[in-house]
Amino acid sequence: MFNSAVIAAVVPAYNEAEMILTVIDTMPDYVDHIVIVDDCSPDETSTVVRSSADPRVTLIRHEQNLGVGGAIITGHQAAMALGSDVNVVMAGDAQMDPQHLPALLDHVTQLGYGFAKANRFFSPESFQGMPRHRVIGNIVLSFMTKLASGYWHLFDPQNGYTAIRTEVLKRVDLSRVAQRYSFENDLLIHLNILQVSATDVPIPALYGAEVSGIKLGRVIPEIMGLLTRGFWRRIWYRYVLWSFSPIALLLVLGIILFGFGLVVAIWVAFQVAGSVVATAATVMLAALPLMIGTQLLISALQLDIQASPSTPNLAPFAD
């Protein structure tokens, strides 16, 4: 146990026969259950796991590959069935240093957060050695996830080193969370809808010789589509259905006015390009909606940032 909480480590694994025993052997003693989900690996991952003598290990093998998110969901469900109070996700490639696990667990067991995640980019030096396109990609994806999820104070959304209370997981419909590489992004959207307090924990990454199997041409459109749908789902539940908030009104009016002004501005630009003199009235017809719409969108954004559930609101586990 850790701070009087039963801890389960959920380990999604795919083709991790070489590293999975390292993950098991380095798992801290205060972790009560190690739930390893072999996501239909074609290698000997399951055989290697079965060779471990650690009594904490529970092995589940998927007969069909569901993706990393699907493996994590299966692991969470199994861990809750084992009676866990807190689930932590650790990758099967040993790139998540267990020495930093107490920092994550302290935030959910003692500081009152429902969800805590690692942040690899906690200082400017964290980006050193990373290719420029990956730096830009991480920044853009983080901003898009902030906008979609409403967790404006979080960064590094693809970091899967997380800790979450099972009382929070029980409120999430896990069957509706994305099962592949967009799992972390989609989970944040679901948690924000439930107004679960979340926080970042600065934790450096461990990089080995492993080659990423992510196919960017497929993953990026998937994540962008999910974030777009998730944004509107969050707005609908938090600011329309459950409590009609000014945020929804400002957002909708801002989009309508900005869109109208943009269309008129483009029309005026084509008229001017065709040697037609634009009148003051047509210029104002474009400029006013653009300015008012922009102001409304900025106001909606500001209110959404203020509404981000960043304050801990859960009781600590009793000692």
How would you sum up this structure, described in words?
With 319 residues, this protein is α/β, with parallel strands linked by helices. Strands 3-2-1-4-6-5-7 form a seven-stranded mixed sheet, with helices on both faces. Helix 2 links the parallel strand 2 and strand 3. The mean pLDDT is 91.
What brief labels describe this structure?
319 residues, single chain, 2 domains, alpha/beta, 11% strand, 7 strands, Spore Coat Polysaccharide Biosynthesis Protein SpsA, Chain A, seven-stranded mixed β-sheet
CATH architecture heading of the largest domain: Alpha-Beta Complex
Strand content: 5-15%
Specify the CATH class of the largest domain.
Alpha Beta
Task: Compute the number of strand runs.
Answer: 7
Q: In CATH, what is the homologous superfamily of the largest domain?
A: Spore Coat Polysaccharide Biosynthesis Protein SpsA, Chain A
> What general outline do the C-alpha atoms trace?
elongated
Radius of gyration: 23 Å
Low-confidence stretches: none
Q: The CATH topology of the largest domain, please?
A: Spore Coat Polysaccharide Biosynthesis Protein SpsA, Chain A
Number of domains: 2
What percentage of residues falls in helices of 4 or more residues? Answer: 40-55%
